[in-house]
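Marked as duplicate of an earlier ticket. Keeping the data here for the record.
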Amino acid sequence: MLVTLRSSLYFLAMVLSIGVFGLGIVTIGMLLPLSARDRMASAWGSTNLWLMKVICGLKYRIHGAENLPRHAAIVMCKHQSTWETISLKAILPPPQSWILKKELMYLPVFGWALAAIPNIPIDRSAGRKAVKQIVKRGTELLEQDRIIVIFPEGTRTAPGEKRKYGIGGGLLAEKSGYPVVPIAHNAGVFWHRRGLKKYPGTIDVVVGEAFDPKGMKASEITRKVEAWIEKEVDKLPMHP
């Protein structure tokens, strides 16, 4: 009962934060340089991490923080929960562009804020066309010293379940030559992929060493990332 109450309070606070920061990004932020909008988005992530800690008792710790990229890189992250879609905004440096489903762009306020920052919305049913878009636009943004964030599983996957990793991130790495940083975590244990409840505890986030994809095929890059992430996830606690 207490977990449900706390989770509901956090949900309301999160919605309020989207309104405040989202409107700020698309109004004041549009009058400022892109770097200011990036910092506002990062502040939204930090605010929500604080809200989760205070309201839900949900914290996190980073293993391998020294591996977090400081410049252009392709971050390929495990996707278990809504948690990482919020928290990576704060954990990674502000100049970020995300590969995301285009439907998110249609959401009031939240979608407007996404459009105010150079993200890469794709139609997941477009197949090869979507992959080409990822490579073309992703390379352009990497050349602007931005971090590209992608969830290679494509959708949230419950802890203990396996899902095939898509090749989009691997192809972007092959064609662009920029370093790849894998990230594993167990957020889905504390915040289920389709649930309201956020259980108290500490999420473990493991950041792997960046590797140079030059000379590797997209399939090799994807398999390397998948093997590392799944191995690290299997080491993490499976219960709150």
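See parent ticket for discussion. The chain has one domain: 2-235.
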